[in-house]
Each structure stands twice: as structure tokens, then as C-alpha cells.
Design goal:
The complex is a heterodimer of chains A (132) and B (211). With 132 residues, chain A is mainly beta. Chain A has two helices and six strands; from the N terminus they run αββββββα. In chain A, strand 3 and strand 4 form a beta hairpin. Chain B is mostly beta strands. Classes of the chains: A mainly beta (132), B mainly beta (211).
Chain lengths: 132, 211
């Protein structure tokens, strides 16, 4: 393994959930306001996964008060406290930009049930094993 | 002495304690040893000769062998001089460690920039080029006129024209040391440094600003 990968693994979080594009996730974000620190939860659909290793980011889209909001979260940032996968959905694209044009019922994704266990998902041959 | 030679491995990112994302260049210091000290008394100026890397036996010809035998070190890939640096006598022949630099310290990094080949004026000098439409004809990235008429009758010296770009020595000053890994002899520098991955870079203490 080359040295940059080694350095990246050292900075990475030990436990990150296996998030896929189309998943609905709850991102717990640590927000510092002056002295105080609080956790903000943002729930939305992952429309894009970018980068790998420590540079991996999730783009999460939600519709907030009728306005579409997209936020990009560096998955391994200390400011991202926790990422929960709420549900999985069947998607056929890697980038779900088409959701931007859709509203309401049309913007739903077909849910995959039941939510596969972490163990079951790792057996998927298409996905490389997550190195610790 | 506060100077190193290293190999640029590439870029990645790290997170600071506060959670800020810092882009860094990873520089690995392999075999890097001070070989000889030059002094004002003997040589007329102060400097340290540093040997970097390993040179294979089959690539070491007789004259080179003579040089390295005299220096009493194994043949190196490069032999370079850091002017104005001093090193204690007992450290000559000893591996240089990255812990001579501390986190947050400012350094200058010198490398050889990526070669761009024969480049036009838009890439090489940042010319704007010509409009793409509104009557433009076959001159979109040209440099335009290079001079006047009978007077002055020649093209001015230093006129910016197409030509070879890159593959030259570039010094980037005042870069910040983001992290130092003594175990692996690796130094992480905030931001980009000149040259392609695998290229050799010189890291020196910045004289401009002290932290």
C-alpha cells in the first residue's frame, strides 16, 4: 500500500456506515456557535458520493420549506458526528441530479426492503471490502 | 541545519483539531545525508553538501566513484548544495530527520515545475485570446500584433510569445508545515508544491516570516 493511502487511513474514522447513493440519511453535524456546541441533524437523500478514502464526501438533498437544499458533508470530518442510514432505495444512476427537477410525489425513490444488515451488504461482490 | 531534500508523493487532505479540512502535499524524505561542509575559510562560502537517494552500482562510473569515495559515503542519486547552512561535524553522514521542522513553521519549497512543452500565449502568458464570434476568423488563441511599423522596425526584446513552458526551477515561499511524521520521515505541507508526483523538492526554512 502506498504511503498516502496509509496516511489517509490513519485520519479516517473507524466506523462509517455503508452509505449508497439514494439512501436517506440523518447526518448529525456538530455546530459551534461562539462558546456553545450543539448537534444539528440534517435528513435527506444522498444524491452524490464523491472521492474516496479520507476525501469521501456525501451530497445530501432535502426539501426544506419548499426550497431544495443540498449540503456536502466530508464523511471523515470531525464535525460530522454520526451518519445514520434511515432507508435504502433502488436507484439506477450514480448521481441523482434528476431529483432537482422533481417535486413532491415524483421525487420519491422506490424503497428497498428490508434494510440489509451490514454483514449482508459486505458480501456484495460489486463493492470492495471496507478497510478499517 | 534546516534544509531537506524529499520526494513529492502527491496530495491529500487532513482535518485539523477544530475540524477544518487542510489540503496537504505529502513529501517523503528518503536517504538524505549531509556529506560535506564548506566553510568560508576553506571554500570562500558557507554551505552543506547533501547526498540524496541511492545510486546503483552499474550507474556509478569511475569518476563518480572517486567523488563518493572521497566523501566516504555510498553513491547517491543526487548531490546538492544548501548555501548558508551549517551542520555539526558529528552529524555528517547521518540521516536527516524531518523533525528539524515543527508543525506550523514556515518553509520555502523548491521544485521543478511540470513541463508544458511548446505552449501558446494564452496558456503561457495568460493572454485573453480573440473573440470566438462577431466576425472572428481563424485567430482565437493568437497573440495579436507583435510590433509597429518602420519605426521601431524591430520586435521589442522580451515580447511575450509562444515557447517552451514549465520544467523550470520554481521556488514557493512561506508555505506552512501541516504535520511531521518522524517515524516514516514524512512531512506534510499545506497547499501545493511545484513539480509532478515523484519529483525531488528542496525544503528550506523560510526567511521571510517567522511564526
Amino acid at each position: 500500500m502506498n504511503l498516502i493511502d496509509q496516511l489517509e487511513i490513519e485520519g479516517m474514522k473507524q466506523e462509517v456506515p455503508d452509505v449508497r447513493v439514494g439512501d436517506t440519511v440523518r447526518v448529525h453535524m456538530r455546530i459551534v456557535e461562539g462558546e456553545k456546541e450543539r448537534i444539528q441533524v440534517i435528513e435527506g437523500v444522498v444524491i452524490r458520493i464523491h472521492g474516496g478514502g479520507i476525501r469521501k464526501t456525501l451530497t445530501v438533498r432535502k426539501v426544506s420549506f419548499g426550497v431544495g437544499v443540498e449540503r456536502i458533508f466530508p464523511l471523515h470530518s470531525p464535525r460530522v458526528e454520526k451518519v445514520e442510514v434511515v432507508k435504502h432505495a433502488k436507484v439506477r444512476q450514480a448521481r441523482l441530479y434528476y431529483l432537482r427537477e422533481l417535486r413532491g410525489k415524483a421525487a420519491r425513490l422506490k424503497e428497498l426492503k428490508p434494510v440489509k444488515s451490514a454483514e449482508g451488504r459486505k458480501k456484495n461482490p460489486r463493492k470492495k471490502q471496507q478497510s478499517a | 541545519m534546516k534544509a531537506l531534500l524529499g520526494k513529492k508523493l502527491g496530495m491529500t487532505q487532513i482535518f485539523s483539531a477544530g475540524g477544518d479540512c487542510i489540503p496537504v502535499t505529502v513529501i517523503q524524505v528518503e536517504r538524505c545525508i549531509p556529506a560535506l561542509k564548506k566553510t568560508p575559510d576553506k571554500d570562500g562560502y558557507q554551505s552543506v553538501l547533501v547526498a540524496y537517494g541511492v545510486r546503483k552500482e552499474k550507474h556509478t562510473n569511475k569518476p563518480l566513484k572517486g567523488i563518493y569515495n572521497k566523501l566516504m559515503i555510498e553513491p547517491a542519486r543526487v548531490l546538492t548544495e544548501f548555501r548558508g547552512e551549517d551542520v555539526p561535524d558529528d552529524l555528517i553522514g547521518q540521516q536527516l530527520k524531518v523533525d528539524m521542522f515543527a508543525e506550523g513553521e514556515r518553509v520555502n519549497v523548491v521544485g521543478v515545475s511540470k513541463g508544458r512543452g511548446f505552449a501558446g500565449v494564452v496558456k503561457r502568458h495568460g493572454f485573453a485570446g480573440a473573440p470566438a464570434s462577431r466576425g472572428s476568423h481563424e485567430a482565437f488563441r493568437g497573440g495579436g500584433s507583435v510590433g509597429m511599423h518602420t519605426y521601431p522596425g524591430h520586435v521589442f526584446r522580451g515580447k511575450k510569445m509562444p515557447g517552451h513552458m514549465g520544467a523550470e526551477r520554481v521556488n514557493v515561499r512561506n508555505l506552512q508545515v501541516a504535520r511531521v511524521d518522524v517515524e516514516r520521515n514524512v512531512i506534510l505541507i499545506k497547499g501545493a508544491v511545484p513539480g509532478s508526483n515523484g519529483g525531488l523538492v528542496r525544503i528550506m526554512e523560510s526567511r521571510k516570516k517567522k511564526n
